[in-house]
Protein 1
Amino acid sequence: MNDPTRAPQRVQVAIIGAGPGGSVAATTLAEAGHDVLLIEAGPHLPVDSAPHFRRDEMMQKYCNGGITPSFALSTSMAYLEGCCVGGGSEINRGLYQRTPDTVVETWRRDFHVDGITCETMVPHFEACEAVARVSPLRAPAPPSSLRLQEGANRLGWRCAEVPRLVTYDDKPSGKKQSMSATFLPRFLAAGGGLMPDTRVHRLRRIGGRWSISGTRRGRTLDIEADTIFVAGGAIRTPALLKRSGIRRHVGGSLRFHPMVKVVAQFPEEINLPGMPDPVHSVKEFEPRFSMGCSISAPPLLALTMAEHPDHMTEVDRHWRHMALYYVQSTGGIGSVHNVPGFRDPLVRVQFSRSDMAELAEGLKRLCECLFAAGAVTIYPGISGGVVLRTTGGVRGLPDTLRGNRATLSALHLFATCPMGERGDRCAVDSFGKVHGVDDLYLADASLLPSPTVVNPQGSVMAIAHRNALHFLERAAHGAAKPRSSDGRTLIARSNL
Amino acid sequence: MAFQATISALTGALVRDLGGDALPDASSKREAVSAFVRSQCEGVPDYLRLPVKIAAVLFDYSAVLVAGRPFHNLPHDKQIRHIHAWRNSNLLPRQTLMRFFETLILMGWYSERYPTEQP
């Protein structure tokens, strides 16, 4: 079953997409004894196959080589998705936070998600954290991260170190706990089958079973499955469902965390090779917006400095004194569309005036914090070439980013197929089953009903675990709705 | 061929503007960046692949109207002037195209320039 070159013709469960949601669901089901095939469009590569956040990793592991634009009438936004076994967990920084209580409450109240409370989610977080270990830094945080904390402290703002899906047993910079290093080895050990480099084009329901048609390394293939879990992410999942004729509340409610970056320059060296990744996050203004420090390798500094072409040589001269910081909000909405005759989905986004005003306020606050931390120059990632050298200059930043052509990007995408029992807005039920369609489930960020405010990987994994256990219980009861959604009871019956 | 020539010329012009020609092994680094940009253009969403190539060639030949020769045959100073004209254009598609290529070239160039500095 582990031979990736052999395409099984029939399986009990096929899971399409090997990111955090798909990997957790696949492992949970395989360890419960199900015959599971995990299908992934991208390659199966070691987590360290290329230097992180660099050109070669983009080419190997990002969807469309990292060039995934969205379209808008005014402000557009680039987004990034992983396209490899392990998905986003292979390319992100592994910052890990549980879903905030207020977000879980929103899902329960506004989307009528059954049986979801902060308490019932705890065992699912714990189960995932036991496999993909979450650790605080053991060594001091890098100077770029500490500067953000110092700035927040001086302003009296709440700031926290965010733990990461990284272990620090072997080396100070840590070992990443991506899906390929944690859940997937367990999945394979449980007899699961992994099929990378396989693109699924369409799902069809034939004779009470699912038929999956796709291509693998240029050859067409067809797989039959009793049950399918789609976990291709918030963009690819709705695109596949729509291509398969499933459209009810699918693809029209995209949400994300739009982000604006700045480059801050300090008098002393803060960007030192070999240091751990930055971990601090300013929480003072959540859930409206949050701030953090990014990976600040010279190529990434240069991308933000593209808005300041007259100062580009500063990167060569001072990159060790520079670091990238960001502010991200939860504003904006979008939709996912298929383009007839083409494979890749088209994403449209739009921002209201208040969305852009919120981001502009966040940008000002971020600059204020960095000046409080001792920054001497700040290059905001907005066009117009505004360079800030004093706190007073922050007042000159625009009150809204609309029309200023901010360079927005998003790493976190959600909610294209929201879960819940509300018939007027939800695509899947409270446990991920597509409404009105037999034996079809979702297991990725597409079903999270709204932005998570924090990094979403913990939410995606825990919800996938919760829903996979519910599927097992549902299967054990012959498709009858289980009486209990108590995570601890369900976990006690499974291996995870 | 026209697309390839445009990308090579655009890469050469921007890298030279960044002071890249003064570095040892500049020529092979520049060619690596050019190959990266071409490869990324092949990887864009499939509905954009042909439009991106057509737009690049249009950019190349638009220089004939203002400078009498295609962009890839212009001297460096006129190439930079043409890039600035598109970057600062009031027409959003021209700005967007320049921003797209500049982003790729910067990513490629700084990855070549700083291959090991991984904070």
Protein 2
Amino acid sequence: MNYDELQQAWQAQPSRVRVSLDADVLLQEVRRNQRHFTSVLFWRDLREVGGSLLMVPVWIWIGVKEALPWAWYLGVPALLWIAGFMMVDRMRQKRRQPKAGDPLRECVEGSLAQVEHQIWLLRNVTWWCLLPVAAAVGTFFAHCAWLARDAGWLVELIMAGITAVAAAILWGVYRLNQNGVRKDLEPRRQELVALLRSLQSN
Amino acid sequence: MSEKEQACLFRTWVGQYLALIGRIARAYTASEEDCEDLVQEVLLQVWRSIPRFEGRASASTWIYRVALHTALAWQRKDRRRRERFLPLLEVPAAEEPGESNTGQTDEIVGLLYAAIRRLPKADAALVLLYLDDLSYRDMAEILGITESHVGVKLNRARKQLAELMKGVAHELR
């Protein structure tokens, strides 16, 4: 069988897809789907950026209510830095998103750049997220330990325990991010690299 | 573009290009469920992309780009977020090659889909455009590569397709 016959057979195939709703209902559903998609993105942004911002007043309130030492308030710039970093990053990435109507190679390049940026973000989560928090929390605990230096070994032990739990949580968050890179993003990146290579290679 | 114009264009495009979208979706998925889901996702992407359509490319080129990009980016786990919506489409179960009672054409088409699914994704896109009888210029415009590059790649992809067709036919008999 030659290529022309293959083409003829291909073009003679009946359409297998049928719209199960009338055009207006289909349109309504697509709009609803789009609204849902937009709201998912909005809530994701709000959760990630708003979560850090919301923590600021809570942090200050706890500090005032419990009359905590000054080192407690180091958490405020750390939280503001994380929220600001995520907000700027999200806005910059939104502008760089690949557009579905662009030529395929450009779309693939855009998707690859996005995935690589996500990988960069998660690989460097220590620097832009965990380290500021760890520095603020660590300084606070060190300060508390210094203030309580005459209170006896039991208090010192409790302080050490709390510090260890905080360190374990930060380590867990770090591992979670690295697992995300390894299991989801890296395979996707390799897939896109292969796709781009096959579009580019002669 | 007003929402009314967007809606009007969407209705027209669905009427004109649903079969094309269905063919692309079927080529990139293994089950009817996935196919239905991918068609749905393409329709959503078409709806979202309409405000950016400026008419510089033809409507069919635009639809091919949107559909192929969506198909290449589509992952099965994405379906979770779409499961809550009404089923918009029906994709009847595909007959396996060799089971068809409606003649040789169905069998060839079944073999073609099976072979296309085994091609690398970019080659599959090129073969789909070729089978739809698009010009080299259109293919280059859709894929974002040069016409001469299309020629080189298409030659290679067609040979690969022919080899795969033999293999698929042999496996099924």
Protein 3
Amino acid sequence: MIRQPAKGNRRQAADGRQQARGKTRRVATATLVGALALLTGVSRAEEPPKLAFVVGKVLVMDKADTVINNAVVLVSGGRIEKVGKANEMAIPQGYRRIDLPRHWIVPGFVDCHNHTAGSLSDLNDMVYLTNPGLDTLNTVQPESDDMWMARAGGVTTVLLIPGSGTNISGFGTISKTAGQSVSDVVVRSPGSIKVAQAGNPERYWWGVGRMFMNFNTRQTLEKAQAYHEAWEKFERGETTEKPAFDPIFDGFRGLFRKEFVASVHTQIYQVVMTTVDMLARKMDLRTVLDHSEFDGWKVAPLIREALAAGRSIYTIQGPRAYHLDGTQRKIHGNAARWWQAGNPLLGINTDAPVVAQEQLPFQAAMGCYYGWVPYEGIKGLTRIPAEALLLDDQIGTIEAGKQAEFGVWTGDPLDTRSACEMTVIGGRIVYDANVRRRW
Amino acid sequence: MRRTGAWRAATAVIAFAAVSVQAGPPTKIALTGGRIVPVVGPEIEKGTILIEHGKITAVGASVELPFDAMEVDVSGKVLFPGLVNAHDWQGLDIPNENLDIGAALDVYDAIDPSRLFFENSLRDGVTTVHIIQANNCVIGGISRVVRPIGLDVDEMTVRPRAGVKMSASPKGGYDRMTQWAILREAFAELADYRERLAEQRYEEEQKKLKKDVDVGPAEARKRGAELIRPQDYDDAHANLHELSQGRLDAWVYVGAATDVGPAVKFAKENGFFDRVVFVLGPDTFKAVDELKAAGRPVVLDVNLDFRERDPLTGKLSETFVPKVIADAGLTFALLPHPDASLAERYLTYQAARCIREGVARETALAAITINPAKMLGLGDTLGSLEVGKAGNIVVYGGDPLDFNTWVEQVYIDGILAYDRAKDVRIRRLLEEPGAEEKPKEPAGDSAASDQTQQGDKPEAGEGAPDPAKPENKGENKPDSPAPPKPSPGPGDDEASVERASDRADRAESRRRKDNPRSKGGPDA
């Protein structure tokens, strides 16, 4: 009765793709990157072009929820120069005019939970139950097919994170979906620390439970915190004893300075409760709850309380859109339940390749299909995840001064019939259906 | 703060027990007209218990009520202290970690407030649960006493760090020699750790004083012993150290009679004998003389009958264990059976059986209330209906040990945590088919299949519209910047979320609409 995404098939497909890719990649990565650079014709040396988009609708996605109909968006120097009504704004000389009078401009989508911006064969290094020294930066693969697909779906920024095989599996990397080199695509590294609260690391060794996992995770984070505080003390001049440099814990200093977030694999009531309690409430880390499925939404009152107490908790839900509750014989839309329970900072992820990276807007559509609110769904793809990853000064809305990073859609991006016709990242058109069409 | 706690606890009751509480709990409640069985002290045929700010402030045949106390008439009912479950691993995800020495572990990290176990505890009149690692361990970890209400573990907690779980009987796959070798090793290693710590501390202090370490290691360890601060221990050693200093309780599983002697000796050698509670296996009672000599409290196995067939004659012999233990004068606690489908699940049934087998009524009642409370170090605050104790009260329909009696209401710290009249699960299970109210809307049962249509909201077309968001029933609005406002009390909010998702709950909400008491007045 209920249509559901063919997750099993998707995963198998991804696996197959991965195997095939593994062979070719090892041989030809360098050639491929070089060839793609020529194909796309984008060079870092070139100044980003001056563009004038004349469109039917701009979803600004700012705090005032502005929508501008029949609008012009001027782009220059990689940034949005000006946004306004077409009849109130002249297009200056020297701008390439792109006329799409029925199309929508929507901020580029941000996926907080992605595994396909890097090599999938390096997803999980399960050396210990917590692996604080590992970093996905070493696995980033610019200009892969997956990234081309991502931007064809209007997805412009992703957080590449390691898998959830262990409780702490390494640092995440915030990456653009277009660019020819690692330095081109990487926005911030570390972009997060991946924590898997429970629900996978159990398989480690011959099995661990939450009592040990949570103890161990807390111990690791406390060690990192102690390391950070020792250095802080030294840097403030409170002690002349210079702490020993530790390459494993040094990366965590940004986490405690709140320069990046903890992105947490967490689901099921008790597990989400523990994440909120341990990471957000007790350690005061900027916490992003990924997955947040099953009956996790019942934690909403604790989150409201923690938000009121000044903690930072974003819920970026997915990939499961709904939960079949056997005891209640009931279908719960995960995003809808979180929303109805009063969790204001709600977004959506794909967990690509579980759901393909370009299907991020479809994930939000699924959330709305099960009872979420469409406008909120779009917000949960743009401004909310941008805020969650501390990128909201750069991206997430269509406002003058921000980076020119958006999709040009044939209509409402949450309408599955709509297609992204053009994607702009860093002021450059990185996907153009007229050049190479995906949809 | 207290009030916040009460609010949240009430919320939690709704979230997990599907029982509805409308208003915040009143700060003063008087339960009047019921028979009071206080466990400690004489019974009162018709009396009043006054609870103020969560604590019992008066018990008696006639109690003068403060003007602002809410009176609850419980005429014809019986008031009994909230039952205490002395030892249970349920509520955790797994009974034990795969780790021999788990001294650093704490059940705090694994307690799941959403487990059905806690809801069932409430339903059975249990207001206090000792969550502790199961018996299949060497050193299991740190336990915790909780109440079965609360949204998170901190809110549930009655006593953190209640004790260390250990087993004197072999863990699965081990024999007794291995088990004891590991236990001895743990404490020998602790002694060694302390020595090294002492030496390290002495050197640190000398360095701080800019002096050389002028003595040998043996002398340094001696001098450094007093320099060790509590924070110098790591978690595992800290807990074992506390234990060895008699500052932490020990709950030691003694699964067979043969293990009693070594367990007593080990506890004495390692400094925690005065704080040990023995958790007995089915036949451990055979060492009753040794247990009696030790004089420590014991927790009995869930199976109260021990049956044994003589290998030569084939004659079946039966021993009723609590009688043996009671006759020996030992303080004991009874446990509920973990299998929820057995009568032994009810502590009151376990106590009733004791009486049938000749154990004195007061002894049997104490074994499910005040005795486990004392074992948990909570004898001053729990386990009986006395002035100064927590307002943990079970309202029974009749005598607590009569098996035709229902738990009608449960108060925990003065919060109405359970009300059978609002227990939708019980009603659903017990009502005859067809006796249930018919849903008014024909949509009722087909609501789920309706959802295949795009845009249909899960809550649309159901009996209980979400009061927090009436506008959400219609078309999706293109613009709704703020999330739905949580309704006035967190209780309402949770209730609406839960209610919207259960057919029986819908009937419940309709019933409550007709109930004038549900208009936000106190539950009394």
Protein 4
Amino acid sequence: MSAPESACAAALATASMEVMTGNDAAATAAKLARVQVIAAYPITPQSPVVEQLSAWVESGELPAEFVTVESEHSALTVCIAASTVGARTFTATSANGLAYMTEQVWWAAGARLPIVMCIANRAMAAPWNVLNDQQDSMSVRDAGWVQLYCRDNQEILDTTLQAYRIAERLHVPVMVCYDGFLLSHTMMPVSVPDAAVIDAWLPKYDHPLTVVDPADPRNIGPVVIADPRADASGEGHGGYMEIRAQLHGALLEVLDVIPKVDSEYGAAVGRQWGGLLWEHMLDDAEVVLVAAGSLGTQLTVAAEKLREEGVKAGVLGIRAYRPFPVAALRGKLAGRKLALVYDKALAYGYEGPICSDLRGCLLGTPDAPAVFGAVCGLGGRDVPVDQLAGAARRALADAEAGLRVRETDWINLHLEG
Amino acid sequence: MPTKILDLPDTSYVLPGNRACAGCGIGIALRQITAALDGKMVMTVPASCLTVLGGMYPIASVSVPWLNVAFPSTAAAASGLAAGLRATGREGEMTVLAMAGDGGTGDIGIQALSGAAERNDDFIYLCYDNEAYMNTGTQRSGSTPAGARTTTTWAGKRENPKDLPRIMEAHGIPYVASTSAAFPTDVYDKVAKARDIHGLRYIHMNTPCPSGWSFDPKDTVAIGKLAVDSGLVVLYEVVDGVFRLTSRSASLAKAGGRLKPVAGYVATQGRFRGMSDEAIASVQAWVDTRWAGYLARDAAEHCSSQTTAS
């Protein structure tokens, strides 16, 4: 976190400092965003987000429609339909809940609806496990949503607010991902901006792409054939592939919008988060530790430990995983000796998803570092800092031995029981 | 008073020409459904024959707002439309109509529908029941009648269909009706009545399908009427829990309750070809039991409520 010099001192002065969980930070942000329709279904560790919102709706503190649906599939469907009408919508889920709504995850993006969904990241069953990793959101990384990963509870609150501005500017849905239990259930001090400051920064959503009006009837989301086709007056319109290309184009445009919104937020509220990426002791680093979410915070401690040992280590945190910040990553990593990616997820039968993406984006670029992968923390497995540092030492030894390709390193794994 | 056929509005929100099969029952009914709502509506539709009827981008065949949604999600989408319209202060501008086929309603869509009904969300849900997955090529659904051959029941379906209106009635919603696309005035009156009720209103509409049932497209209305005369389809409504037969079914009851035999109905459609006498007798017994139940309910609830009123 850094406060811009031009930070709005008044905004910081009117903010209130509270101690809250990550889930409460997400709920508080949704309330500050004055969401109009909320629909959610309980799942650990997300449930407290919507319990809190439900209490605020019932007390009248938050004037919104709260639809207590019978499943996650319906939760996202309600947001899809309400967003089509032009309402600002919110939902949240985790793990199997996200998997259950996957069909609608794709639908929301294809329909270009600015829905914001918080994901309290949790391991996927089977076997059952309610604790943290990032397999759930990683499994839908290609669906056309923006994915932002948070380090701490303050970032959850600020990012959820920023998510609405990003979503509504380009008509794309945004997932705000934060680690289950590690953040969702951990109390931290959070500065809550004054509602008037946010009202000015995030005005009412009043420009949906969709029109739902009997005086101007439209068939929204009908069958679209492969090729462009003329309408009744003979004017040509894109086919399925053109529509999908437009979604891709919007997501690439988000790469410019995320840093802009972050700095606009900084100017209004007094905090910003690095835009697409964040870094710690990166300037002269030869060994760069890469991760998304709260793991990045742990890596800063590991990097400091390595520095004490004389290893020039630094951290590059992924804040925006989708769209993937290719140019920013290339810029930050050119000339380094090694990038070690710590994934809390796995593409089974291959390797960690961030590792693959990073290696792919650096391939063939000048002065690219070696990119190695490590997998850790699956199903809430403890990730001690000394083991994170140990993995970096092993990777550095492999790189110095001339290896450019290496198997994924599993951290804190005990196959022998 | 029931509307007479000549009194149905001339206004049509269904434009000339659409992509439905020749003789499709949906088209007959959709004219009355949209007219009964004066076009002041938004409809939501899952993957189904109706999607096809609605047209392919950028051409549409129906001039009312229409939101396409994923197969299991029709009722939840209607809940979302209602919530979104309320949240934006526009709930008075239009009626929300969910319209899905029998598979989309009673099979893959029943979870979302049951949830919305339990919450009594404010929309009309109309199931057009063409008694199988017609849009994907006539696979059996939970609404396919016993004896019907489909592409997943080559020897004829063994089970009777599930009773969706009764399932919906068990949710305690304010309005449940059973109608048929072959009775446009009954469709019109039920949608018009539902329009003025708040909460979840469920209308189940039998919809003859020439291609899936295998009959000549010119016979859609005749077969729909025969289904009612044979008791396979019964026209009724349940308002706040009070049952009454309507339209042709009420006339049949008044005339002594005699139905035409199931065997005659079965003989009109290729889907029942080769159905054994035992299977027909079994369906006849199922029809007779159901019909006796409807007659008893009509006498107990409708006729007694009329007596009380007078």
